[in-house]
Amino acid sequence: MKDQFKDIRAYRVEWFDAISDFLIIFPILQSFAHKTTDGLKLDYLGDKEQIKKDIKHGAFFMTNHRDIVMDAAWLSYLLRTHYFIRPFMGVGNNLFAKHWIEFVMRYLRCFAVKRGAGAHAQLENAKQLSAYIRSLRARGKSVWLAQREGRAKDSNDLTQASVLHMLTLCEGDFFENVKALNICPVSISYEYDPCDYLKAAEMQLKRDNPKWRKSKRDDVVSMQTGINGYKGHVVYRLTPSINPEIDAMLTAHPEYRALPNHDQLQLICDMVDRHIHRGYEIFERGTEFEAYIESRIAKIDIPNKDEAFLREKLIEMYNFPVINYRKSLEKN
């Protein structure tokens, strides 16, 4: 039988997983945690025991997205060491720059999210990816995917409706298809983002030239900076499955089942966002933070450097999590 997922699927060999995890991968991740953070912590929003039940038979971990590599790597490490769960992870195929990198990443349970194609090809790619993820969940496997394509450079973390649409490209009731995924949102908080100055520079380059696009070299620099750069305290906060909230919403509003699909998508996007925003770790920023911002601006080397704009964007990316956290409490 033809493997319909051959060009995107992750590789998986049980004995290789065990050996590579505990003898190679995890010691490396522990080393980076010691070198680049002041502490890497797994925490919980709500009833810890309920969350453990929610993820016991596999879950779809949807997170905000700060770093190209470390977001998924450290989540995988924390889940494996605490609960012996090793999620399959969706990464953009733009990161498979060389065959050996692709080979290694696929053996680390990464599957390819195809990027950059025409409208028809994008739809077919979305259908294939959706079917692959559902096949993993049907077998009780856990999956990680960011809430949006690419990182939110300004840290205004909002779930992309197109991501949820892709995940539910199948027959049946929309809300039941969402529940079958068992979405457990996860909040990722870095005290300091090592790529903050790179993101600010990209925002100015994009402002000055709307046609500007990142190169493969830019991706490599972002990956290296994200892996090796100082992050301060790093907190991953698990939140409960959204399934009970969906049931409560539909009990109160059965008419929601008849809403247009884009409205149903937005209801779930808002639900995921509330969980992620409420799970942020809010870091205290003292007077030394101003000096930190100036030091990041000094690292930026681009044509027509606009320091006022760069300063505004750097401050913005540290302010948005606080703003969204407060809004989530008001909504709650």
How many strands appear in the DSSP assignment?
7
Low-confidence stretches at least 5 residues in length (pLDDT < 50)?
Answer: none
Q: Calculate the mean pLDDT score and round it.
A: 91
Percent range for helical residues? 40-55%
Helix and strand string, N-terminal first? Answer: HEHEHEHEHEHHEHHEHHHH
Question: How many H/I helical runs?
Answer: 13
Report the biggest beta sheet as strand number plus sense, adding barrel if it closes.
Answer: 7 strands, mixed
Strand content: 5-15%
Task: Strand order, main sheet: write it out.
Answer: 1-7-6-2-5-3-4
The rounded distance between the terminal residues' Cα atoms is 50 Å
In angstroms, what is the radius of gyration? 20 Å
- By CATH reckoning, the class of the domain at 14-20 and 37-190 and 236-284 would read Alpha Beta
By secondary-structure content and strand pairing, the structural class works out as alpha/beta
CATH T-level fold name of the domain at 14-20 and 37-190 and 236-284? Glycerol-3-phosphate (1)-acyltransferase
Q: Label the overall shape.
A: globular
Structure description:
- This protein is an alpha/beta fold and 332 residues long.
- The chain has a domain at 14-20 and 37-190 and 236-284: 3-Layer(aba) Sandwich (Glycerol-3-phosphate (1)-acyltransferase), CATH 3.40.1130.
- It has helices spanning 14-36, 48-56, 70-83, 99-107, 119-138, 161-167, 174-181, 196-208, 216-228, 243-252, 261-278, 288-298, 307-331; strands spanning 37-44, 60-63, 88-92, 110-113, 143-146, 183-190, 232-238.
- The longest helix has 25 residues, at 307-331.
- The mean pLDDT is 91.
